[in-house]
Amino acid sequence: MLYPHLRQLLPRAKNLAQHAQSFRANSILTKHIVPAGHGYAFAVKRGTRFRIVDLHGEQVVDFMAWVSTPRASNSRPEAKPLPTFEKMSTAYTRYHLRGVTPTIGEALYSNADRALLRITADTVKVHDMTFMACFPALYEKKGMHGHRSCAQNVFEVMKEYGMRDILEVSEPFNCFQNTPNYSLKAMGSSKPGDFVEFEALEELVCAVSCCPYDIDGFNGGNITDVAIVISEEKTGEIQEQEKTIA
Ligand SMILES: [Zn+2]
Fold it and tell me: What spacing in Å lies between the alpha carbon of 228 and ligand 1's midpoint?
């Protein structure tokens, strides 16, 4: 059917264009569209900033991060860095924030008590740090066999970074999820084009899942594409460029 496809594409272009202007001037932008209900993993260097963009509104995005270590020097040049046991921890972050509502300038912490990411911009300011990622058995119990889940999405995309088991998927920072006091009343809080921006404070492998939870009107009742926009500072002879990975 043509119409839903077009509806996905039109706001996408408009909502991505603004990031070219508002990110740091002296930087290279990489954009990646995460298809509705799927996942994406990416490595970032210390100092890199990136945005998780809700292109169509009311779409929750589960976010996780691991401190990475380079592959051995004798591995293939294109080999991905490996996640370590140190990862973003919502429990440590709640402890440091004395709450569950991080704001611009505050950090997300690791299970080794180090600041891994700083929130550098946020057009929504409503996120969740209490719920787990939705997982296959959750849907199985509802009779929805084979339904996609955030845990499965992250596991799939983290395999190329060495993840071996879905139980290695960690507890997420749920971008744009509006679940105050552990209520499940209103899940999505974002408008088309809204974003949260992070600065990596360490070398990281990050993973996101565009949450496929399509029950009871959550995620706006319609799972939609989101985008990751990464801004890396130019170094040496690299000239201004912009690449889009659709
Ligand atoms: Zn989910």
Answer: 17
Separation of CA 74 and ligand 1 centre (Å): 38
C-alpha span between 67 and 231 (Å, rounded)? 19
Q: How far does residue 222's CA lie from ligand 1's centre (Å)?
A: 13
The tens-digit pLDDT sequence of the chain (246 residues) is 444 444 555 556 666 776 766 776 678 899 999 999 999 999 999 999 999 999 999 999 999 999 998 777 767 767 788 899 999 999 999 999 999 989 999 999 999 999 999 999 999 999 999 999 999 999 999 999 999 999 999 999 999 999 999 999 999 999 999 988 787 766 668 999 999 999 999 999 999 999 999 988 889 889 999 999 999 887 654 444 445 544
